[in-house]
Amino acid sequence: MKQILQRLVLLVLVSGMPALAASKTWQPAQGPLMTRWAAEVSPRNAHPEYPRPQMVRADWQNLNGLWAYAVTDRAAAAPTHWDGQILVPFPIESALSGVMRRVYETNRAVDWETTVYVNGQEVGTHRGGYDAFNFDITAALKPRGQQEILVAVWDPTDAGPQPRGKQVRNPHGIWYTPTSGIWQTVWLEPVSRAHLQDLKITPNLDESSVTIEARGLGDRGRPTVKVQVLEGAEVVREGMIEQMISTRSIPPQIRPSITLSVPNARSWSPDAPFLYGLRVTLLENGRKVDEVESYFGLRKISLARDAYGNLRLHLNNQPYFQFGPLDQGFWPDGLYTAPTDAALRYDIEMTKKLGFNMARKHVKIEPARWYYWCDKLGLLVWQDLPSGDRSAKWKGPSGIDGEEMQRTPESTAIFEHELRAMIAGLYNHPSIVIWVPFNEGWGQFDTVRILNLTKQLDPTRLVNGASGGNHFPAGDIIDHHQYPGPGLPPRVTDRAMVLGEFGGLGLPLKGHTWQDEKNWGYKSFTNAQDLTRAYVELLEKLHPLTGRDGLSAAIYTQTTDVEIEVNGLMTYDRAEVKMDVERIATANRKVYTPPPQPASTE
């Protein structure tokens, strides 16, 4: 693979006010297609919402806005010349960055390895393109005046083995434009020397309880943690974690915890997405030194057998057919970054309006606010790990193939690190019910070991073994892909059977496509009426499979068009739903009802 020797460098100057001064002449670049939310984006209001809804502090400073940028050699010193200004947090290839520069055309940087400097002093390096991270910059700050933050990022995209999903340097077909540099909110947050670092929240529906693990930094006193469960504004349960460690740093392997019963417990589901509030306070010698607000939902995902011996997906101890779209998470004007928080929410609202109860987040990990909206609005999530490296010899949905690729030790270590980071970073979201480590053989290796590792890292959720084919006898689910379909995976009795992708019915709508011609769908139509008719016919074939045949879930391709793919329920700019909303919603909801029983042959 060709070695990538350039990087992207970004600079922001911080004082008492956000980022570089907003230029009165700033405009987004004119991309091939824009969403209606693009008109709301400016350097003054680029994603102003607090970005971490499950660990909220009142005091913070948003650094989104105009930064300086330059593309340099990877080993070069800090730039002395800047190429221009870029609107953070939009990637440089996007129209909303104001640059829309195809960095990959010159084999330059993207968003995997990040090194941060403050006032010329290196404060840390992070590897991973999808997990949130932070650095303590206290020691590098000047006592007063303007502070300089410089971020240098590098990534080989598809020239390296790291998880990258559908980003490639040469977009084509089902492979899309890459994201370079910062693509999520950047912010500063002052904390005391003793402070909370993270929370791990585990609901137990059967026991009507919740377990909270808290990890943090102590200072000189004896730290304790007060945990309060809230229903609305009312505290309904509280307790103390008696923290006996008085050292400066609580070791990562030590996670003091408390389990609290929840009175008159209310469960969480797509039909009734009730969330409890959570307030966690760190005290030293009885004095409050830090406090965060969070939330949780009481829900349970499990397997149980039906009357025919099939393992079924259960939600909150009841059979629950899961049906939703494949969601790629791309935007025509922001690429990996939604133009606004309202846009992020819109996709989830429309998914529910169309009668779905689930979405499969396909080889991409979203910012925390996407999962927050799934939690709050009530949408189940199947979460893929973004794929990387090469592909195994995938034979398609042909059963237990036993085909794997061989990764290098470096590639293996990268994969496992990012798998652990994904699970740890998203663990607290009740909407996520299934992890999907592999898709269609992309980067598939050590399948049984990786599926067992995933289950070990999170025994509270189910693991979808290998979505689409190349199955191994491990995990909780056997997953079949069939276009247009529908169809069933090979029948098994040790896993739930699901249709992980089907449909892909395409319709380009003039004025709403990434390019004017040569768009692509698995099966193409020329008008909304024929498309709607074909979709309803697909579901009429799908419905019987949910009975005696044992199908537990189905995923339709896909939420929106993406670049030259035009098989979305919505156009890429989200301006049009391609089919009649009420007719589609009615057909979708029928899938959840018991199918007709076959006539007796006796």
Structure, explained:
The protein is an alpha/beta fold. The protein folds into three domains: about 5-190, Jelly Rolls (Sandwich), CATH 2.60.120; about 195-295, Immunoglobulins (Immunoglobulin-like, Sandwich); about 320-590, Glycosidases (TIM Barrel), CATH 3.20.20. Helix content is about 15%, strand content about 30%. It contains six helices and 28 strands. Strands 23-22-21-20-19-28-25-24 form an eight-stranded parallel β-sheet, with helices on one face. Strands 4-3-1-7-5-6 form a six-stranded antiparallel β-sheet, with no helix packed on it. Strands 12-11-14-15 form a four-stranded antiparallel β-sheet, with no helix packed on it. Strand 22 (about 430-435), helix 4 (about 445-455) and strand 23 (about 460-465) form a beta-alpha-beta unit. Helix 1 packs parallel to helix 2 and helix 5 packs parallel to helix 6. The longest helix has 18 residues, at about 410-425. The radius of gyration is 24 Å and the shape is globular. The termini are far apart. Residues about 1-5 and about 15-20 have low confidence and may be disordered.
